[in-house]
Amino acid sequence: MSTDAIALPGTGMASRPLVDTLHGWVTTVDHKRLGILYIGYALVFLVIGGIEAGIMRIQLIHAHNDFISPQVFNRMFTMHGTTMIFFVAMPLVFGFANYLVPLMIGARDMAFPRLNAFSFWLTAFGGLLLYFSLVGANGLYGAGNAPDVGWFAYAPLTSKTFSVGHSTDFWTLGLLVSGFGSIGTAINILTTILCMRCPGMALGKMPLLVWLNFVMSGMVILAVSPLTAAQLMLMVDRYLGGHFFDTQAGGSAVIWMHFFWIFGHPEVYVLVIPAFAFASEIIPVFSRKPIFGYPVMVAATICIGFIGMSVWAHHMFTVGMSSNANTFFVLSTMAIAVPTGIKIFNWLATMWGGKIEFTTPMLFCVGFLFQFLIAGLTGIMLSAAPFDWQLGNSYFVVAHFHYVIVGGILFTVFGAFYYWFPKMSGKMCNETLGKVHFWLFLIGFHLTFDFMHVPGLLGMPRRIYTYEPGRGWDVWNLIVTIGVVFQGLGTIVFITNLLWSYFTGETAGSDPWDAWTLEWSTLSPPPVYNFASIPEIKSRRPLWDLKHPADPDWKYE
Amino acid sequence: MSPTNIFAPVSTPAQSIFGLSLFVLVVTAAIFVVVFTLLGYAVVKFRRRTSDDGREPPQVYGSNQVEIAWTVIPVLIVVALFMATARVIADVQKAFPSTNAIEVVAIGHQFWWEYRYPGLNVVTANELHVPVSDTDHPTPTFIKLLSADTDHSFWVPRLAGKTDLIPNHPNSMWIDPHETGLYLGQCAQYCGTQHAKMLLRVYVQSHEDFNRWIQEQGKPAVVSDAASQGKRVFETTACTNCHTVAGTTAKGRFGPDLTHLMSRDTIAAGAASNTPENLRLWIRNPEAIKPGSLMPAMQLNEQQLDTVTAYLETLR
Questions:
Q1: Which residue of A has its CA nearest to B65?
Q2: Which domains does chain B have, with CATH numbers?
Q3: How far is CA B220 from the centre of its chain?
């Protein structure tokens, strides 16, 4: 085991002219810089997507509100959904995977550094292409160039007949381009994990984060490909006279739904598995115990990967599938609760008997555990097809998937920010600001998304720009909107904390959390080559072995 | 109480769903209580104390016994939930029309509902009338769901779960409301600009009232001489391209049938109540009531507006 990373001085970035620095970032093929680019890009879009959500919430604050027109509202929810999934969540996932996977397996870079840069810039330009729709022609109030077909863009609303102009094309091309970026990065992560592990790191000795990103990347390849195919077919329909989804010429609207959801549901796992990965690294370190049941955690993840590919049509319980098809997708969807439950129990057992330190990253992960439990249980409700006939496409569903994506994924991503920020920047995050961020966001999250379930139970469908008075929806929508204020304040504290800590934070040192995986064995921030000499490991916790030579892990694994 | 509460069912499909939902809620609530308590206990009990000696806790790597336990128990729970769910799916989806069932064809349009009663020679819009179905006279209504343009979804929460209306993909659903009254709902699949104001109104009537309604709806329009001026305006402008008034030259199919317009409580798919003022405003400037609706402003002068409104007021 070699951790004597040579303390070479940095490359002296600060003294170089700005244009050189920028040039360095634009032309970089370093996995760490690309990771940070992905993350920074996602943060910008997170703010944009959040503003779009805020605009919608102002409009829905009471019945018959007149803040924005229906046309603008429809564009807002389309842009909000598309942005948050494709240009916030995916880049965050890929950013952290890019940064962490090579460091955690003791490699000096990804397998294909140039493909890595290419994939990032594809994603980046995909997002710009989507937003170019806003300024590209007549703008928000003009003939309408922001897409307004919803983030799953059901046919035939996307056909030439119902979507005149080019808004749908911006949506299609933006996703097509970024989709190729996603596939490129997924191939890169898979290859890196398979081929670049340091000596001693058998598959069974990889950190869980690496295992989970491996499964995630496999799912990206399987799930994004059909979406890309569907986008091409849509382009053929719109410009080359195809009739795949053109119902007026005998095409099928249902086929689009299948194409979209065989991407769309695995996509949920593509996003949540990396969230599990963060929790699986952070919870053990701050409980001071190894992850409970490592082989079972790996098996459960692979299980989720496989079952997750066969549940897509639970998004389609109301489209009139046969009762046999409905029953099959009920079973597959409910089955996925089992490996997911196993994961929650293993995290619980990891904390059990430990000495839990409530640092900011751990707070976010504990919040995740409680919230993901609730998200899973509302998921079970939705998986019961008849119950879904009532709940589907209502605000209950909106609340459910925001519980998964915000309460589950975003909370662990915030945890990951606080946990790895010292490694990425060399500075500690401010703990007080971190805790203010946590509590503000927790309050905001629960005000918004707990109460959002209720109007769904009272019959409020999603994607409506206004609603009738007297339905009993007003007060709930008011509370939901108030929660957004707290979430917004929390996000401002978060961004402030990142900037403040970057410039004035305490020096972190290479291993501020007394952690056990390889990224903590090198400098903070790591040198370009990551490790002065390639480490060699014997167990899943190489730094534990190093710190406890009398009682190393490899004697027990 | 909300008129669209899913937990206040008055029709068999909604009641079956309600029963299942209670079972699912009880099971999930039990899981929630157990796991939440365990998590809460762990978080409080195992936090690092200020008196901590700084030593690492015992390093436990796993246990096959407990892994098996928390795999098998969830599997059993899933089996129970699945069986209960499969049964309700079959109950609701495999029902077929009895001889005394009413058949209705519902056609979704951007952004209104067309209802046709095959065999009864009735065509109407936006306000569905069905007979009450009590134990003495079980008269369920089977609704065939079609779409003229994009996807829509028929959702009246107190009567049944939602089913989508998809072009080129006929669907069906059924209801058998046990109590008379007005039941509300709205389109539940995003269908374009005015998805929000594509409201559903289902009038459940006693058998006598329903039969009377059917008879009246089957008659052609009767026009009094007083309204003939407005009738001329109606028939000589673009109104007839989209609207039908049975017994006249107006035979358009793109918009709602207006033969018995005044028998309805609302216009614009429930967006406004059917008053002369609203009707006049709707003809003059639909954007004022429903921005993005496909009804164009008819560019009539004030006098034409008055006479057309007066004519429409006679369509009872």
A1: A293
A2: 1-40+64-206 (2.60.40.420), 225-313 (2.60.40.420)
A3: 28
8 Å CB contact of B2 and A330: no
**Whether the predicted interface score ipTM is above 0.90:** yes
Q: How many whole angstroms separate alpha carbon B239 and alpha carbon B256?
A: 11
Question: Which member of B5, B61, B169 has the closest CB to residue A459?
Answer: B5
pLDDT digits (tens, 9 = 90+) for A243-295: 999 999 999 999 999 999 999 999 999 999 999 999 999 999 999 999 999 99
- Per DSSP, the three-state class of B273 is strand
DSSP B296: P
Neighbour tally for B102: CB within 10 Å? 22
Say whether B190 and A389 touch across the interface (CB within 8 A).
no
Nearest CA in chain A to B95: A323
Taking CB atoms and an 8 Å limit, are B5 and A356 in contact across chains?
Answer: no
> Nearest C-alpha of chain B: how many angstroms from A427?
24
Q: Which residue of B has its CA nearest to A351?
A: B42
The reply to whether residue B151 touches residue A384, judged by beta carbons under 8 angstroms, is no
Q: What is the pLDDT of residues B84-118, one digit of tens each?
A: 999 999 999 998 888 889 999 999 999 999 999 99
Domain architecture of chain A: domains with CATH: 27-555 (1.20.210.10)
| Chain A to chain B Cβ contacts (< 8 Å) | 282
In chain A, what residues touch B5 (CB-CB under 8 Å)? 457-459, 472
Please tell me the pTM assigned to this model. Answer: 0.95
**How far apart are alpha carbons B10 and A544 in whole angstroms?**
63
Bridge partners for A394 per DSSP? A461
User: What contacts 24+ positions apart, CB below 8 Å, involve A191-197?
Assistant: A191/A111, A191/A112, A192/A101, A192/A102, A192/A105, A192/A107, A192/A110, A192/A111, A193/A101, A193/A105, A193/A217, A195/A111, A196/A102, A196/A105, A196/A107, A196/A110, A196/A111, A197/A105, A197/A106, A197/A107
* Torsion region of A523: left, alpha or beta (phi above 0 gives left; psi -120 to 50 gives alpha): beta
The number of beta carbons lying within 10 Å of the beta carbon of residue B47 is 16
DSSP string for residues in A488-503: HHHHHHHHHHHHHHHH
The answer to whether the Cβ–Cβ distance between A334 and B81 falls below 8 Å is yes
Phi, then psi, of B203 in degrees rounded to 5? -100, 110
- Distance (Å) of CA B8 to CA A423, B18, B179, B227: 55, 8, 12, 45
Mutate to test the interface with A, among B150, B174, B191 (most CBs of A within 10 A): B150
Please, which residues bridge with residue B164 across strands? B153
Residue A468 CB neighbours (<10 A): 19
Q: Give the minimum alpha-carbon distance from A115 to chain B in angstroms, rounded to a whole number.
A: 38
Beta strand ranges found along B15-132 (DSSP E): 102-109, 112-117, 122-125, 127-131
Nearest residue on chain A to B16, alpha-carbon basis: A386
B96 in contact with A, Cβ within 8 Å: no
